[in-house]
UniProtKB/TrEMBL annotation:
Binds 1 thiamine pyrophosphate per subunit. Binds 1 Mg(2+) ion per subunit. Pfam families: TPP_enzyme_C, TPP_enzyme_M, TPP_enzyme_N. Belongs to the TPP enzyme family. The keyword Zinc-finger does not apply. This is Acetolactate synthase.
Length: 558
């Protein structure tokens, strides 16, 4: 019989899950756990804010495919994880968040730094636990990792009272778990797969629409095989970028509010959509009444609740995308879609994704293109949210899965920098760039200290237009340029901030200096902030106004 405290069981259980990094911050009720971590081989990454810890765990998970883990204290520490949990939940990212809690006899008594974090996070987690007895801890941790990483992945929270952490009990390792009522369906219904193949083979103008589920399921290879065998063009959601090579002739870019014209026209005119691992977000469909009115829809998703949630579906297939595509590929044939591909090529030629470049000022799209060229498309790109996110999505040609990390569903400003920290730790072989706005970078800029302390060579490219750019764009287009509370002329000196934290800072004001600065940053073995002074009122185009169909785009050359 092996006797351990709850804190020791916590450490042992994480080691059995092959956890390498633990992101977090200590506090009063989790001191015993951090004490147990002191002599363990687990590497604790001390962040400067609990939100940063959750985003770093999230970035680690997206970059590696493993479960990200963080540990914080009770009350305010636990509450500060809410945004990170909601971000991971919306994008189906597997993280396990451990929160400290006051001793069980004090729960509900308004004890110091007590919060009902289980109640608070119930709507934004895949599952959560309150551990009431140390002897349950090993089983609960095993279940937490299992739930987070299987079926449709997602965040799981484990609330750990202080008395559970210090109580000594018999440690019984748990190697497998069976959870009543939780049986993810992975294989797909054979008759539905055959029906899908028949629709694909009979189609004349079909489109594959792939989402982040393709990447999470490891189905990118099968997606390419399906597209090439059938000659179906492919569009991906924002989170699906990298799931299909952007340099492939069949790639259409992403659809929706800021999608390419040819992707939006293709979805609007097609006769069949083969949707894989995606949820038909409202930013993709636009006015739902006008979305794909001529098309039948096949929807493959591991989450049955995602099917027919936002659009009607003709052939639902519940299961793992890689499994289902592997069964579907032998049943499909090369489609008779020559005229359709010709139409798409005409749209691409008529409405290319481009912008008006300038030698007098730096265009943000140019900066992203230069990052792509300098890294040969092999970097991991994280983003903040807003214009910087859309320019990164359009002008960095993602070639492989897990190379684009961004908050798609929740749209979390402040995500990119801590996510870059997690990505760099998980993939030290990769160059990592956070493409940021000058507004969003200030929401978690304190994590620069985390990057410096751990000597992580991440690069932060700030597209500095002195605006909350996307809101300003909406104000310009739909509110007569009344820039209410979006002007950031009192920004701090980002170069001095970088230097104050011990990082390197560079300010770039001329187009000719953009590429040399990027190359110098890549060679620097420390975090680097690149402050690009870009055109102030550049817009993201194309754009679909709110309430319009996705074929009704405005603006720009594209």
């Amino acid at each position: 019989m092996t006797m351990m405290t709850g804190a020791q069981i916590f450490v042992e259980s994480l080691l059995r899950e092959n956890v390498e990094y633990l992101f977090g911050i200590p506090g009063g009720v989790v001191i015993p756990v951090f004490d147990a971590l002191f002599d363990s081989p687990l590497k604790v990454i001390l962040t400067r804010h609990e939100q940063g810890a959750t985003h770093a765990a999230d970035g680690y998970a997206r970059a590696t495919g493993k479960v990200g883990v963080c540990l914080v204290t009770s009350g305010p520490g636990a509450c500060n994880t809410v945004t990170g949990l909601a971000t991971a939940n919306m994008d189906s990212i597997p993280i396990v968040v451990f929160t400290g809690q006051v001793p069980t006899p004090m729960i509900g008594n308004d004890a110091f730094q007590e919060s009902d974090i289980v109640g608070i996070t119930r709507p934004i987690t895949k599952h959560n636990f309150l551990v009431r007895n140390a002897r349950d801890l090993a089983r609960i941790i095993k279940e937490a990792f299992y739930i987070a990483s299987t079926g449709r992945p997602g965040p799981v929270l484990v609330d750990l009272p202080k008395d559970v952490a210090v109580t000594e009990t018999e440690y019984v390792p748990v190697s497998e778990v069976t959870i009543r009522g939780y049986k993810p369906v992975l294989d797909g219904h054979v008759k539905q797969i055959k029906k899908a193949a028949e629709l694909i083979n009979a189609s004349k103008k079909a489109v594959i629409y792939a989402g982040g589920g393709v990447i999470l399921a490891g189905a990118a290879k099968e997606l390419v095989q399906l597209a090439h065998k059938t000659r179906l063009p492919v569009t991906t959601s924002l989170l699906g970028l990298g799931g299909f090579p952007a340099d492939d002739k069949l790639f259409l870019g992403m659809p929706g509010m800021h999608g390419t014209r040819f992707a939006n026209y293709a979805l609007s005119e097609c006769d069949l959509i083969v949707a894989v691992g995606t949820r038909f977000d409202d930013r993709v469909t636009g006015n739902i009444k006008e979305f794909a009115v001529h098309a039948k829809i096949i929807h493959i998703d591991v989450d049955p609740t995602a099917i027919s949630k936002n659009v009607r579906v003709d052939v639902p297939i519940v299961g793992d995308a890689a499994n289902i595509l592997a069964k579907l590929i032998p049943l499909v044939t090369r489609t008779d879609n020559g005229n359709w591909l010709k139409q798409i090529e005409d749209w691409k030629a008529q409405y290319p994704l481009t912008y008006k470049d300038s030698d007098k000022e730096i265009k943000p799209q140019y900066v992203v293109e230069q990052i792509y060229e300098a890294t040969k498309g092999e970097a991991i790109i994280t983003t903040e949210v807003g214009q910087n996110q859309m320019w990164a999505a359009h002008y960095y040609k993602f070639k492989s899965p897990r190379s684009f990390l961004s908050s798609g569903g929740l749209g979390t400003m402040g995500y990119g920098l801590p996510a870059a920290i997690g990505a760099q730790l998980g993939r030290p072989d990769k160059v990592v760039f956070d493409i940021a706005g000058d507004g969003s970078i200030q929401m978690n800029i304190q994590e620069l200290a985390t990057a410096v302390h751990n000597r992580l060579p991440i690069n932060v490219a700030i597209l500095n237009n002195h605006f909350l750019g996307m809101v300003r764009q909406w104000q310009e287009l739909f509110h007569n340029r009344r820039y209410s509370s979006t002007c950031l002329l009192n920004n701090p000196d980002f170069v001095k901030i970088a230097e104050a934290y011990g990082a390197k800072g560079m300010r770039i004001r001329k187009k000719k200096d953009v590429r040399p600065a990027i190359e110098e940053a890549i060679k620097t073995p420390l975090p680097v902030i690149l402050d690009f002074e870009v055109a102030r009122e550049e817009n993201v185009y194309p754009m679909v106004p709110v309430g319009a169909g996705i074929h009704q785009m405005i603006g720009g050359l594209a």
